[in-house]
């Protein structure tokens, strides 16, 4: 039986590989539809096959990759219908988290609990203003994970994070041709944090509704471009 240290080390390596694969899929370095084997990924990252296989099985459970019988794995391909379902799931999840806040923290979150999410908010806003897609994706994921962990718990934050990863996997290749996206990315992260500190739950709810509208309306031109021509 492996020692406790060996189990922890292997688990840590699996997590690192899963994170690296996720980052490559979100940024398009591993594009939707790309097929690969455990050996391909092991050689890509210079690691052994076992933690790679474990990482890929984990990502398959999260629906980021699909298992192709006798052929390895494939980065999941998504449709606009999938994307719409992701946006709807995010909205419903957020509404549920916000509904509990007035009872949990009626006077708002103390500054000490907002330190990390405030820092992430500043990073995300700067990235949005710069319009760099790759930097924005990283900052966006970090910001929302910290925010959702604050609003709920780690399990909910992880679930919401996976929805955001799927959304970015779908969007990044569609927005990259228009980069830099300066002025076209949501940049009100700090306003949301300030509302949480004040305990202004009506303002927080309105910021979130505005964010969801922004997300839905912002992709409309992309949706139109991908629609089949009627001519």
Automatic annotation (TrEMBL):
A molecular function GO annotation: DNA binding
Keywords: DNA-binding, Transcription, Transcription regulation
Domain HTH gntR-type: 11-78
Keyword Transcription regulation: yes
InterPro entries: TF_FadR/GntR_C, Tscrpt_reg_HTH_GntR, WH-like_DNA-bd_sf, WH_DNA-bd_sf
Classification via Pfam families: GntR
UniProt-recorded name of the protein: DNA-binding GntR family transcriptional regulator
Species of origin: Allostreptomyces psammosilenae
